């Protein structure tokens, strides 16, 4: 199994991280996860655009050209023979003696690895249970940072309640999941939080909105209160890893159940259609 460290492909056992990497001290870095279907990365351009946007917001200088990044990632997929899986890649600000204040001339550190994909069959068909809890994260959730303590804390809380995902609200306004975006369906209209600083603008979210609109669904990108969950016809989460996964129950600060509805199923089918096919 190979990984990427800076511009090199190395056997995983040969990789080493510098003790003074700011990613390690401060979580000072950004990342992306791309799903791979039949050996082909899906929506790579979108992910690279978002990486660049995260980098700009944090003044992290990307270590090399996008073309180089793509070449390296493709080489890694081939080397690891990834057919259906994930490729994770991150850029930390680089190595400097520990100091909160960053300089603007560090050399960023690029790392990447691959993973097999989870089997989504059961959860996509029957849905998942989610745990409604407070959004305890910071106010720049639009940045895809590796600093994910708020996300990991609520994910653990959800799992301890036998839920697969935490759905978050800020003072009663639903934002998103701990590692996914949330959509509600009411009278065939889709509702999701707007892409502000309070959520990560998921690539899957963007593609689902596009698909829905192409197929004559209305999509309302507006904040809505938790109570709206109780009146929704359907609900689902989206992410690169779980695609479109229905919600079958909400527990915690509010309690409700959903059937896997026709709009969710329709969008799941339409989403499958745009995924890379075997060739
Ligand atoms: N929100 C958060 C907080 C996430 O971590 C993720 C997945 N990384 C998403 C939404 C979904 O994003 P995407 O569809 O780009 O995977």
From TrEMBL:
<protein>
    <recommendedName>
        <fullName>D-alanine aminotransferase</fullName>
        <ecNumber>2.6.1.21</ecNumber>
    </recommendedName>
</protein>
<comment type="function">
    <text>Acts on the D-isomers of alanine, leucine, aspartate, glutamate, aminobutyrate, norvaline and asparagine. The enzyme transfers an amino group from a substrate D-amino acid to the pyridoxal phosphate cofactor to form pyridoxamine and an alpha-keto acid in the first half-reaction.</text>
</comment>
<dbReference type="InterPro" id="IPR050571">
    <property type="entry name" value="Class-IV_PLP-Dep_Aminotrnsfr"/>
</dbReference>
<dbReference type="InterPro" id="IPR018300">
    <property type="entry name" value="Aminotrans_IV_CS"/>
</dbReference>
<keyword id="KW-0032">Aminotransferase</keyword>
<keyword id="KW-0808">Transferase</keyword>
<dbReference type="Pfam" id="PF01063">
    <property type="entry name" value="Aminotran_4"/>
</dbReference>
<dbReference type="InterPro" id="IPR043131">
    <property type="entry name" value="BCAT-like_N"/>
</dbReference>
<dbReference type="InterPro" id="IPR043132">
    <property type="entry name" value="BCAT-like_C"/>
</dbReference>
<dbReference type="InterPro" id="IPR005784">
    <property type="entry name" value="D_amino_transT"/>
</dbReference>
<dbReference type="GO" id="GO:0047810">
    <property type="term" value="F:D-alanine-2-oxoglutarate aminotransferase activity"/>
</dbReference>
<comment type="similarity">
    <text>Belongs to the class-IV pyridoxal-phosphate-dependent aminotransferase family.</text>
</comment>
<dbReference type="InterPro" id="IPR036038">
    <property type="entry name" value="Aminotransferase-like"/>
</dbReference>
<keyword id="KW-0663">Pyridoxal phosphate</keyword>
<dbReference type="InterPro" id="IPR001544">
    <property type="entry name" value="Aminotrans_IV"/>
</dbReference>
<comment type="subunit">
    <text>Homodimer.</text>
</comment>
